[in-house]
Every structure is written in C-alpha cells, then in structure tokens.
Amino acid sequence: MARILSDNNNLLHSWSFYKTINENILSSLLVEKLNLLILGTSDTNKLILVDTSENYKIITDYRITNVEDTTDSFASVLCMESHEDKYLFVGCSDSLIRVYKIASSSLQLLHTIYSTMDVGDILSLKYLDQYDTLVIGTQRCCLLYVTDLLKSSKTTGPSAEINLTESAIADENDHINRLPSKRYDKFFDSIGPTGNKSTVSSRSLSNATQDDNTFQSMNIIQVPKENIVNFAHNGFIYCMDTYFDEKDCTHPTQYLITSAGDGLTKRWVMEDNCLYLKNIIDINDDITGYGFSDDEEEKENDAVISQFIKFPLLFQGISDMRINVISLLTDRLIETINLSELNVFDDHLSKDESLPHAIKASSNNDNILFIAANDNVYQYNLDEDEENDITDQKLSRRGSLVSDTKIIPFIRSIRSEVNSQILNICIDGNKLSVLESDGNVYLFDLSDTLKCNTQKSLLNEDDILALNQKNNTDENDPNHNSETLIKDLSKFISFKTTADNKQQIHSCASYLHTLLKKLHSTVEIFPNSLNGTPVLKATFHANNEHLANNSKNILIYAHYDVVPSSVSDSEFHLFVKDGFLQGRGVSDNKGPIISMIHGISELHDAKKLNNNVVFIFEGCEEIGSIGFEETLKSHLELQEKFDYIIMSNSYWIGNKYPCLNYGMRGVLNLQISVEGKRDLHSGTDGGIFSETTKDLMFLMSNLIDYKNNTLNVPGFVEDSETQDLCKDETRFFNDIIATGEGNVTLETLIHKWTKPSFSITSMNGSFEQSIVPKEANVTLSIRTVPTQKSVSCLKKLITEKIQNDFKILNSDNKLKLQVLNEAEPWLGDFKDRIYKIASEELKSVWKNDVLLIREGGSIPTLKILERMHPTAKIMILPNGQASDNAHLQGEKFRLENFFNLKTCVKNIVNRL
Amino acid sequence: MCRFLIYKGADPIRLSNLLTKPQHSIINQSFDSRLRLDRRRPINGDGFGLAYYPTEEPSISIKRHHSDEILDKILNKEDSEKESLWSENLNKEVEREEQEVGPSIFKAITPAWNNENLRILAERTKSKLMFAHVRASTYGVLSETNCHPFNYHSITFMHNGGVANFKKVRRRFLNELDDEFFNIVQGSTDSECCFALFVHILHSYGYDPSRSKGKFGSKVLRKVMNETISRIKYWTKEANKIVAEEKFKLENDQEFKRKLSLTKIKEIQESKEEPSMLNFAVTDGESIIVSRYISSKVDEAPSLYFSCGSDFVERKQGEFNMHRVDKKNKMVLVSSEPITFERNDWTAIPTNSLLTILKDQTILLHPIIDEYYQKNPLFIRDSGFSTRKGQMGYIPKDDIVNADGKVIKDNSSDINKYSAHVRFPAIPPLDSERRDHLI
Fold first, then answer.
1. Could you say which of B39, B220, B408 has the minimum Cβ distance to residue A298?
2. Which domain holds residue A279?
3. For B331-359, what is each residue's pLDDT tens digit?
C-alpha cells in the first residue's frame, strides 16, 4: 500500500499506519488523523505520534511503542507542541488541552486544561517559556492562556491548586462536572419527547459515564475568565509562533505572533501576567505596490494556514500555494512566493486543495525551509547557493541574479494512486519526518541537504591576534576592539543585501538594529514609503558632561545594501588577506558603517561624546535611493535639524593620501527605444517599412555633436566652458598632481570633475544578420556639473530634442524615452570649518597630507539630504582606496583604512 | 418555531446524508426537537423547504460537443453550415447556463417526515450548497409561500426566530421598501419581510440583487446583514414602544379603555414587550452569512451550531461523524441544533455574532457589537425567553434537576456571579433589563 519512493537515498525508514479493518468501510474511515512531532536529539531520535482513535505512539529507534492514554476521549488531536523535550502539550477537538511530562517511553499526564466557554477545537498551542505561559488558539476565534503552568507545578506538585482566584470553587468534583464533555449541555444531555435518551450515540454515552477516577487523579486547570481574549481574531486561530526581540540586550522580550483564518496577523506581548495585543500586522493595508486594487476590496483576506518565523522574516502559508514573506521589522509584506508558478507540481490536485500545510526549518541550519504542500515536501533555499548551478542562472538587465533553483521538491519521485497529501512535517537536527494523509510516516536523513550550507570559518585566531597588535584600537575594551569589529563586519557582510533580495535586506536591517542596540544607541525603524525597505535611525546623545550645553547635531548617512554580485556566493563571505578585508560591500558601504558606529559608540560608552550623533541607514542606495526622500518627509522623527552631515561612501583618488570630497557630478541615465510592430526580414520586408534600428541611428547621430564632443542640444553646455576654476580649486588640483596620486593630469581632472560628459552604455537590437529587430534601444549616461542647468531642466531639453527629431522622420515606429536614473550635481562648501577640522584630523591620524577632491560619479542621496536640511553643512569623507574595486569582483578594503576611519570619525565628531 | 440546516462543501454531498439519515437529521428534528421543549407541541410539522444549488458542470456541454463531433464523423457529414449552427446552439446553451444561477427549490406544507417526494429527492440529489428548513408556524398561515427558504435570483434566505410584535409595524416596515422588493413578499410571514429588507439594503448599497452572476462577496453580504439586523432592531423598538404605549393607556386612560372591546382589552393585556430573535442565513450561491442574534443584552438567542471538517461519514447506521484530516475545512454544517449526538463535532455559535462561510469553506466569526453585546465571554444569557418561544431546550438533565429554576447545574456558581436574575426566569426579559424607554 505504501507509496513508491525511489531516488531518495536519504530515506531512513517509513511506517504505515493503515488500518485494514474491513474493506467495505469507506476509505476515509480507515485513516484517522495522525499528528506527529519529533522529540529528542538526532541520535536518540524519538517520534511521538498520535493515532486519534486509539492512543499515542512513541517511536524510538524505529520501534513503535503504544502509550496508553488513560484519558481517552475519542477526540482528534489537532495540535502538539513540546517544550525542551520534557513537556508535551496536546490540543484536541474535545476542547481540552493536555500537558504531559515525557518519560523515556511513556507520557505522564500533568494537567488537563479546560474553559467553561464553548471554544470548539483547539487548533494551535504555544508555550512562552519566558513567562511560563501556555497560549491556546481555538476554533471559537478566542485566545486562552494559562500562566505559571510548569514552574509552579514543579515545586508544589500536581495536587496543588494553581489558580488562587478560582480556589473558592476549585474542588475537584466541580472541575470534573465542568469539563466540556461532562458539563450539562442543553442538547447533548437532553432526553427526547418520549422521555428517553435512546437515540443518543453510544460513543457519547460511554464518554459521559467514564469512570471519574481518571479525572480525579490529575490536576485540572480551568482557564480563568480574565485569561480569555474573546474574538482575538475573526477566524480560526491556526498558527502561533514566538520570537525574541532584543529591545534591551539583556532582557529580550518574547513576542507572540498569531495568525488565523481571517488572514490577519497579530502581535501579542505578556505584561504582568496578562496577554496584550501589541499591534495588528495587516499586510493588505500597505503601500508597497503589492496592495489590492479597489475591485478586490470586497474580497476577504486569504486564510493563513501555516507559519514560520526566521526573525525578522515571517513566512505564512496561504491558499493557492502561496507563501507570504512579511518583515517583522517593518510589519510589511515584502514578497509573495508563488509555489504554483514554479511548475514543480502535478496538476492532479484541484486548486482549492493546494495548501502549504506546514513550514519548518532545521535548527541546525535554518537557511533551508521545508514546506509541506500538496503531495510533496519542498525545499526552499533562503540563501541560494549560487555555486551549485551557475549555468541555470540568468543575468537580468540590472545584473542581478535570478535563480531557478530556489525551490526544489525534496522527495523527488513520489507517486501515489490516492490523492494523499503531506499533512505535517517535523524537523529535529538532521532528521525530517513526514506525515502523509493516508497514514504513512517517513523519516529522512537531512545531513546531505544541510551540509552544503554550513558556514565556513573565515577568520582564524592568528589573523585576529596579528590585527590587534597592528592597530591602534584600545584592546582593553572588549566591545570595540579589532576582533569585535571584524566579527561584526563578517556577519554584516554575510547578508546578501542586493535590491532583489528583500528577505536578506530585512534580515540585515534586523542584524544592524540589534548591533546598534548593543552599542547603546536608540534605534528606530521606518519602512521605506515606496517599497518597505527598512530605514534605520540610530541616535547617540552627547554625554560629555563638561560640554553638554552647546552640542551640535550631526547626521551620518550610510547604506547597507550592495550592488549585486554576479560572480559567486563567496563574495558574501568576509576574508582577511594581506592586510585587506575582502567581500562584497566591504568598502561600499558596510565596512565604514561598522567602524563608524563602533567609533561613536566608544565615545558614548566612555561618556566623552560631545555632540549628538544620528546615523541614518538606508537599503536602497544602490538602486538610486528610491523612496528615501519620501520616507524622510513622511516621518517627523526623521526631520530633526542637523548642523553637519557626513557621508562616507566614496574613495580616495589614489591609494596613499587621505582625501576629503566636496563635489560630485550629476547624472541622467536615459534609455531611448524605438519600437515597431514586429521583427522584419531585410529580404522580404527591406525597403518597405520604417526600421527601428535606422530610426535610432538617425536620432543618435542628430543628438551627438562628435566634433565638439558634446550634445547637439541648445543650452546643454553654457558659458561654463569659459569659466575658469577658482583659485582654491586650482590649488587643490595642483596639489593632487604634485602627489602623483591616481596618475592624473590637470586636463583629466578638469574633464572628469568639472565638465559634463555623455556615454553610450548599452545598445540592444537584433543578433541575426538579416533580421531587423522589433525593438532597438540605446542607453545614454549623461553626467552633469553644477555650472550647467539642473538635471531636471536638461532632461526636458534632451527629450524635447529627441522627440522633435523623431517627428522629422515621420516613422511608423514608436519612440519611448525612459529615465532610468537621475541625480543632481553637488558642490560642497570646502571653506567651512568641518572641512578644516576633518582635514587636520585626517592628517594627524594618517600622518600624511590631505587632498581635497571631487568625483566624477553621482550620489542621489546627497541632494536629497541637502534639500531636507538646507542649512546643514555636508561633507563627504572618503574612506576606501582607489583600488578597492567597489561594485566589482573582489571588492576589498584595507584594514588600516577600516580602523583609522573609526579614529577619524571619533575625532572629527567630537571637535565639531 | 423553526429549524434550519445549511451545508456548504468543496464536494457535493448526497442530501439524504443530511436530511434523512443522521440520527437527529432535520427531518427527525421536525418531530423530535431537542432544543425546543415546548412539550405540548414538540414538532415542526408546518411544512418544510429545501434550496440547493446545482453543482456546476461546465463540462457537460463540452462533452456533448465532443460526442456530436464523433457522430458527425461517423456519418461523414462535414457540413460547415451545421457546424456553425451547432456552435450557435452551444453558445446559447452556455448563455442560458450562465443565467441559471439560482438554487433548485422544493417546498411542501405536509410534515417533512411524511413526504415521500422529499425522501426520494434527497436520496438522488447531490449538492455543494444546501439550505433546508422545517417550520412550526407561529406567524402566518400554513402555505407554501410561507415556507422558507426564500429566494430572489441567486440569493437564498431563511430565518429562525421572529420579529417581536411585528404586526404593529408591518405596514410601516414594508413602506420603506422599493416597489421591486416590496413585491418579493408573497406570503404573510415576518421572515419574508426581513428577506425583502435584506435585498432592499443590498440594492441601496449599489449592488443589483438580480444580477445573474450573483457572487456579491462575503464582505458585502456581511455588511448588508449587519445593516438588516440594525434596521430590524429599530423596528422592534418601535413595535415594543407601541405595545407599551397601549398598555400604559389602558391602565391610565379610562376614556381609552371604555372605547375598546373586551377582546381588544384582553389582547392588549396579554401583549408583551419582547426582543426580536434574528437567526438569519443568507447566501449568494458562493458564500454564506449566518447570524445568531437577539435584541437583548441578557437573553440567549435561538440555538445555532456549526461543525466543520473534511468528511461527514456514517460510522454505522444513522451515526455520523465529522472527520477532520487537515486544517482546511472541506465542508461546513450550520444547524439550529446538531444533527448528530457527537459532542466534539459541534460548536455553538456565540449569541449576537455573524458566521461567514467563504467560498473556500473558511469560517469567519464576527461579533455584532451594539447595545446588546456582552463583553464578558463567560456571561450566561438567559435561555428562558427562547425556550418559551420554542427556540431553545429547557430540558432537565435526566431526573436530577427539578423545575425550580436550578436547571443549569454545571454553571450554578457562575450564574451567581454574573447574572443574579437568571434564578427568576419568570420575569419578562425586557423588564429585567429595566428598559424603561417609555416613561
């Protein structure tokens, strides 16, 4: 009867719980619900199963032991939960919750919990160990909870009464008569009009007359009426999970997340032995672009069937084989994984029945989720290992990776004649057990699956020792010494915070959040108004008592996202090699973040911080700081007044001299595309139609003034050509040339930093020799300088020019212009004292001259911050060397720079 | 007075498994109603009604198409004209099928247990969505037009309970309705007027109740149901006001009393201010809203239970069990009283709340929060009123409990705690709430 399982070398064992009593009986009767749970470690593997019609079964070493359940009640077990492998909580359809102590091969009943309210089935249970409280989710949409459950019973023994408030009526007989199965019910205890109960089911009867001794021997707990949260949801409460939030590092708060058939997710917290609703996470209420249209306003939310928390990510299984990924940092929906779109399913189950029944992960490596859905278990790699299948990956236009191998069926060839489903899975250590609806239980070995993702150790002790000796950090302070910094950075780098990888972005923000708290700052999180990416604000208040009065407000901006790595997974591991840190984002911008926050925190811890320092971290910088300005504007908390703004994502001009940056060019990336109706063949169609490529060439040649190396757009270049550099700048430029840094000439510097430029960065058309493509496009990257008109103005001029030219063509094709990216140029006030102070500090730390530089690149955030804080002085503090290879393969950051930045920032901030 | 039963499932169920076979099936309830011990007349014998939505089988027309094609090939008739004619017919057929969205309805005024047609029909019919109702008339004559469920295009509706003193406000009540919906009312029951009001409100919210595809969505239906209840609540207050006014006048205004006949005086004296009992069920053929409501803060509404699971199986003759294999409901039963005696299978719907059954059988439960809402979930409402109205059992547990009011043995201490008045069920419910809205 068992299904055929092949190709699964990792199948350890399977059990079949078919009961072939009578072949004439309906098949659905044969198999009643089994529930299972794995307890114990991987070597003393123990499975607890419940066969609802009879009793519990414990499987130890593949042998089944039946455990007599003295409280047999014909009820189905609907949920089980264990605590520390010592206690077992079981929720049943008879509205009772049973608490067992797990012995070697038996279960000892400790408590039976009931409520005088008719709560229906018990659907979910969660034990909050921090509060010794069991929370119970019911069919009646209410939450019940019992406090002081295990701890007090340990000391006072099972006979002691727990609920003092109820003690007046707490004699045991009373409890017995109040149990849901015993208490008088108008219907079930009724006699018919004929005066007899003859029609009452024999099963119910035996139930009611069961010997009371069994009940007397155990401790019965009534849920006190204060502990009932009526209508906690409007649907069946299917899922409960907890997580710890390290608000205060020494006392993390345990939160409870419930979700239900009404599609809502709620966060609860215990205070003074009471359960309070903290907030509702209504993902339909968001503005992330995943929101619902007006049409669907009339639709109910999708019921949440299963749930798993990998903080800060909450995975929720909903109907139609979808999994919502919600960030518990921002309470927003960040992604919906649609399993049914993955073509990994057989269609033999109707859509209605397609459900992700359970989501679990191994505690050994929770980067792989296992999802029980339909008739298979799917393996979902949170942290896709790109080394495995490089050939399968497509490179999307922005250079990000799209992996096709994120979700794979775990049980590879599984076929069944019956429409059986995977109902539940349990993972403990390296073992996965699977319960199938037709009564089979399988046990798999996961060691192979989990092995490939084990973390490599990146730093050895010797390296760290060497570091400590080399650098001028205070090694007596364990919070801020080199080792801590490197460790923090290593963890920080391991998050693949590319724009597409929302889950990693949120996880990384959560890590940063925790770290900043650990460094004693006040942290707040704001979801990005456009896409929900967390924006973090960390505040260190000035605490130097001698200088408390006139402290300044300083904003330090940085970003924790990185450009996608197109090469390999190992980019996201930190290496230390030859005095360099290596890894994606190590220089741009994660390394600087770690050294700066540690620097400020060190001052703060020593009570020597003279000025108020606010860090703002965003996660969308690499994709043009989308929504950053809107986010700042929509939160009053982000609109404090600042005297100085410091940014650190930029580089020295060379590798030797420290630099300060006071100018950036603006950018306008424009895609020009010409679109026809279809592909044309040069033979059959040539000469008849307007051709996309020809049109595009015409536009481009009209736009570009090759002779003067400029654009044929009136007003693009103004009289700036004639404008000479001011005296100061000439001096700076000459200083740079004198040092020989970057091997530049005055000519190149002037062109690179003070003149506009344009480049054609991509051209797309046909790849066939005789095919005229349906669409052809060109991407122009135009850099602008402050002496020109503003970027928005230039944008208008350029698009008008192109559109007018296209009109001349009188073509049948369509022209499309798309602005991919834009940022205004920026020129800082290098005469301000911040530049003077910074220059002096850099000089003293690096023992070298400081160069004042500009850059040819662009940072959109600069202008955003300038607009938000028009009175603040902005300075860019470059920290990496020119050879850092930011955005490229093998990004690195010199250790010396990493540690010196900490010192520089400390000194600069304190002197401002 | 009445009993109803609702089935909604992913798979069609044979109606006999609900209507006739189970121990306490609705047919059995019609002569052995456990929760209404109106011992004089414990039977719901004044007719019954059944509405079931046909299972959609779009494949039928395609199958026919296929078989015709084969036939054509056999006869070697490659007649394009015929082909086009055929597809035209097919289109018409599809169109017609789209229009026929409403349920099949079967009503009779004979007692349900005696109806041979019903027995055979139930044996031969399967449906995914069924409403059934047995009636014990208290209001309105015995006629098929007075039998529930009521239907308007895709919408089906039934009621268990009654609008208090409806006679006093019926004319004004109906006056509120648009002509179109006024004309729905063919019989003489308060229930049908409530249905007309429901449809009227649905229309006033901007939805065309006659639209062929139905499917207004559970959110809309719930909103409309809430509004319907709140409007009926208003009329109940109006009706009770009239009753109280008449009584007050009778006692204090001799002039008024002198003009009345003895019968009229007696009628006024016997009339009472009462809450309305509004257990409604409505469906648009896709989702279902059921209310359990009483316009009183201390009384219990007529009984209502639900049961859900994966399969409803017959363990042995007449003994059915609700099986649950996984979390998702494959079927839902809602019934005025359980149709089996399996305690664990049934959950009472709390008084003054709305139960929603979604298209995919997900159940939602919303409290109706108004002046009659009880915040304390353990508050024990007085079932005396519903009992007297024949809506709720008042059966002593075997012989142990005598008739002095200490009936609810298991909850006696809670009663002392929360509602002292329960011990004196003789006090009319509205008086015990001291609702002196008149004077």
1. B220
2. 4-191+201-451
3. 999 999 888 888 878 889 999 999 999 98
